[in-house]
Each structure stands twice: as structure tokens, then as C-alpha cells.
Amino acid sequence: xxxxxxxxxxxLLLLSCAKKSAEDQFIDNLxxxxxxxxxxxxxNQLDPSWNAEEKEALIREGKVGSIFNVVGAxxxxxxxxxxxxxxxLGIPLVAARDVIHGYHHIYPxxxxxxxxxxxxxxERAAQLTAQEALSDGIRWAFxxxxxxxxxxxxxxxxxxxxxxxxxTSTMGAAVVKGYQAEGMAACVxxxxxxxxxEGGRDYNTTWIPETQLRDIYLPPFKAAIEAGAMSVMxxxxxxxxxxxxxxxxxxxxxxxxxxxxxxxxxSDWGSGSDLVPHGLCADKKEAALRCINARMExxxxxxxxxxxxxELVSEGKVKESQIDECVRSILRLKYRLGLFDNPxxxxxxxTDISAAFAELGTKVAEESAVLLKNNGVLPLNIKHSTLNILxxxxxxxQKKEQLGTWVFDGxxxxxxxxxxxxxxxxxxxxxxxxPGLTYSRDKSKTGIQxxxxxxxxxxxxxxxxxxxxxxxxxARCRTDLNLPGAQSEMMDALAATGKPVVMIVMAGRPLTxxxxxxxxxxxxxxxHGGTMAGPALYNLLTGMAVPSGRLPITFPKMVGQIxxxxxxHNTGRPSYDPPMLIDEIPIGCPQxxxxxxxxxxxxxxxxxxxxxxxxxxxxxxYGETTIDTIxxxxxxxxxxxxxxxxxxxxxxxxxDAYEVAQLYAHQLSxxxxxxxxELKGFQKIFLPAGESRLVSFTVTxxxxxxxxxxxxxxxxxxxxxxxxxxxKFKIAPNSDISL
Length: 739
Ligand code: GLC
Fold this sequence. Notes:
alpha/beta; 17% strand; binds alpha-D-glucopyranose; 21 helices; 6-stranded mixed β-sheet; 30% helix; Rossmann fold; 5-stranded parallel β-sheet; Immunoglobulin-like
């Protein structure tokens, strides 16, 4: 009896495996009809916004699988008809675009969205963005960018969600879910380690030990893949000597074999052909070989696959099966987007999201702003008094600059600037507008004098300063993070009037504004807040909204401290005491008489502002952090202990407000040195004035694990594990704690 049951079970199992999904059947069937040339054509992604005639001819010949930088439903449909109606198999194109933080309606830059610590809000923003982009023919967005960044000199720090793997993972996954819930493919980038570019200089070399790569840089990609990201983009950088486009360890070992991802892997712009200037390949034909052997599946604007793959196959250097697995990924993305059934986009009804965006865009901009200082001047008392407010600074009324970097389709006519927002409110205050400087790099002093003169008539000065949009983003790296132009001189002059100056900073990165923070009565760091920056800042400055942003990245005092991040190692000689600074050193003192620990002679090791920091108009009181072990199998050879970590938080002020409770953990000893603290959870909670809330976090052994490494002669091995060790936990308002 048993034998027949076993046999029928095996038969059913075989049947289920043999029964392919409809998707696989479709893909296999289409693939079986394709010629080698048609397959290679699918692996080619082109930007037909230039050399259009030549590229349209390639589309008609079935030599293009995807187009990007084409906008407008009509134009996308026109090119789509060439692929669907003029090629032998009619395989549709997939149209892609850099939709990074909004489409026509722009949200704060991702670094600002990271400062919201509100993934639900970020997911909703991504959903609304997708609705707008889809109606313009965009089916594939080249975001989220989840490069964990420790170096604010790097221009693309603006595009990510800051320095922490958990915060970045949470935000990246939210964007993936938001886009794909609406039917637009996400593309998690840049895989991997791009943000570790030496010197904070874009595209530069990166050296990242395997354990650090896996503990810090890879988790946000894994989180995005687990959230269902339909595609991944290679990064430009050489990682430990191997550029990502030609890196089988990243693209096959990790992405395919470890993470079991079936997402499409696309190069970055020409990153395949860049292997020649990298010095990896002698020519583009070799570059094509190295990329296909590392399973880079689609070549963005590099033309190396269409130029060389067929020849490499005929020479026996590339198997057609390698090409088939790449084309499967491409057909799978198109199948999942429904392109085979609906290749065209309705041309009549552009989705109008303006009503929903007015509220959501304002809310995201409000929650992305971080209050760094307030001597009580904020919120402005606009209810019962007649205030004379000077609105000044190079970013007070700049529709384009407040959008920030990567806003190809941003509609600047929609921008509401701070000046517009204040002027549109009929309140008891009187607005004086005198920009002082006309753009962030403006060095002319004449305007400053006008602003100073106006300040003398004002009760309070609102100084909107920071960076123009062009000063951050791709290839926009800086070695000096002070306010550009004559803004520091302008702040000196405004402060000298004795009037309270509220500094509102719009920038794509942390700036070294220590002196200005001392001079200001209050500082609100708004990053580039997008289309609704103006209304959001009006609401925050007047108390109609209460600041709830928290820094997603450490703010250094000076560039010389970089890289400076919260989850650092303690070193064997931590600098506990404030070091004797350079001008205090006695002349001629003996070499070891002034102490030696890990510090600099010019500045203490503390940052200007720590990761997770942000003030409110209210105050919060944190109770003791309590820790209960949930499962504790002492006999086990591996750590099976989980923890329930709790703290009661009370709003002890007069404003109802959000607080971001942050859970930090510290492993006191281990197989490898561990960070002095690591963010292991966060909760953004709304607390009415006077109320308390118990905040709880469950920490599992997995949460406390990290990548180990050992070397046996020339062979090294890595593995993920959780040490049996002592852990400390603290629920706190920011990372400036000792654990
Ligand atoms: C750029 C960027 C990448 C972008 C791509 C397409 O060079 O590195 O993030 O998506 O090219 O514009």
C-alpha cells in the first residue's frame, strides 16, 4: 500500500514541477522563436532623444529592447508602434526614465525623504509619482537609489537615504512597493558599493572588505529585492578592482545564487563600455565578453552587445544559453508589466495628481525638514502680533533650485517658493523681500548691504540659504562644504544687525555650517524640499506644522573629519577626553606629553549634529529602557536569544507632535570588532501634548547577526552568524548616546 502512495506522491511532485507557470511557458515559447540577432536586440537599451533617426532604424530592425529618456505618451507610442508593428515578432519596448523623487510634481530629494523616517509616507509618494509617470508612458523608473553614504562630499549623497543600512533598506523597499503597486517597475541601484568612492569623488575607486560590503552596503539591495524590485542597475565603480558590470561575484554569486533574484540587471549608462577606460579590458569586444560572463543582462547606451555578442557566439567564446538567460529576464519584466497585452499608453488622459499632491507633497516636505536649533524664536507668533518679516537669501524664491537634483521632468511652474507661500497667507505680518544674493554661488556684496538695510526694519529675518540644485547629484562632488558664494559673509552681516536670524538651509548634502548655527537664532535644515517646499516651510515656521524630521546622515564640523558616521568602531584608543587642540599645545613639549588617542589636533571627534538628531516645538521625555529576554537557549551553540526592548515616552511640552523613537544596540565583544552602536529599529509615533506611549521593539538573533570572516591560507570564507555575546540596548531620540 505504502509503495503505491509513495509512487503517486512522486508522480504528482514531478507533474507540479513539470507544469510551468503561464509566464514561463510564454517566455519559453517566445524565446524559441527568436533568432540570435533578435535576442541580442532585446539586450540593447537606447536613449533616442539624440541621434533619433539612427536609433529609430534600429528599433524597426528589432535591435532595441528598451528606450529611455523618451517622454510623452504620444512619443512613446510612436516608437512602440515601430517595435510592435514593424518587427518580425512584435516584441514591445519598455520605456524607462530617471524618476527619482517625483515626476512633474517633485517631492524632497531622497536624502530629505530619509529624514522623514516615515516609510509609509514615502511609499504613498512613490505611488502617486508612479501614477503620474505611467500616464506619460514611463513603465520603468531608474530608482530607488540605495547607496549607503558616509561621505557628504559625494554629490550623489542627495539621491540616497543617508548613512544607515536599516533606514536606507526601509525607505528603498517602500519606494519599490509604491512604484510596483501601480504597475511601474522599480530599479534598485547602484549595485554595489558606489557610495564608497574614494575621496567622495564620483565614479572613483572603491575598496570594501567583503564583511563591510555585506553588513553595510548590500542590505538595502537585499531589502529591495525582497520587496519585489523588478530590476537592478549596475554601478560605475570598480569594487575591489572589478567594475560592477563585469563582477560575477556581485551579479551571479550574490544576486542570483544567494538572493535567488530574477530581477533584470541593467548596466548604468555605458558602464559596460567603461571597462576599457577602467583598464580592465583592452577593447569593447572584450568588455562585451566580460559583461556577459558576469550576466549583465541589458546594455544601457553602450552598444557593446549589439556590436560584439554575435561574433563572440560564432567564435565559441559565448554560449547562446548565456544570452537566453539574459533575454528571459528582459521578457519576464515586459510580461510582468503587461506590455505584451497592453504595449500602448492612453494618450488622452494624463493623470492629474495635483490635488492629491498638494497635500502629500507638502506633508513629505514638512516631515523632511529637520529643526537643528531653536532659541525660542520659532514658531513665529503670527496670530496676535504684527510682525515685520524679512525674507532674504538666494533660495527664498527659486522655483527650480528648490527642486534639487535629478528632476528631468519637474515642472518648475508648479513650484511654490517660501516667498510665494508667505505672501499668499493673509496674516498680521508684513513681508519685506530682499534676496541679498541672487544665487547660491553669488559673491557680489552689493546685494548684502540692501538686505542688511532691510533687516534693520524687520522684527525677524528668515535667511533661505544653501546650494543651487546643480551643486549636488551625479558628478557634483565638493571638497569644501561651507555655504557657497558670499552666504557666510551675508550671515555675518545679518547677525551683526542684532535681529534674530532664522536660517533655513536648502541643500543636497550636509554642509559645514557650525559658525552660522552659532550666529542663528534657529536653524531648519530643509534639504531640497521639492515643489511644495514653500507651503511646508511656511507651516513649519509658523507652527501650523511641528518639525519632526531627524537627520539621516551625520553632519561633520569640517571636511577634515570625513568619513564620520555614528556606527563606527571604538578603536583600541578611543578619544574620551576632549583632546588638547593644536593651539593649546605647549611649545617644545615632549612628544608623548599631550596624550595619544584617536582624535584630531584641530577639532574634537564629535560631529556638528549626530545621526538621528532633530528638535521639535515640544519636548519628549524617555523612560528607562527595559530589556526582557524572550527565548534563551543557553545550551545552544549559537545565539538563540531574542529580546523585548521597551521604553515609555512622554510628550512633556505644549504641542502635539511626532517623535522618532530609535532603538540602538551594541555588542560588547565578538568574533570581530563591532560598532559602538547600531540602529536596530525605529518607530515614528504621534504623541498629543502631555501623553505617554510605551514603545516596544522585538530584537531577534537574526537582527543582531553580522558577517564573519576567516582565512585559511589563501582561501577566505565569510558567513552570517550571531555571536553568543552581551548586548546593550537603548531607545533614544538620536544616536548621541553611550551604550
Ligand atoms: C546615470 C546614472 C544613473 C541613471 C542613468 C540613466 O549616469 O548613474 O543613476 O539612472 O545614468 O540616466
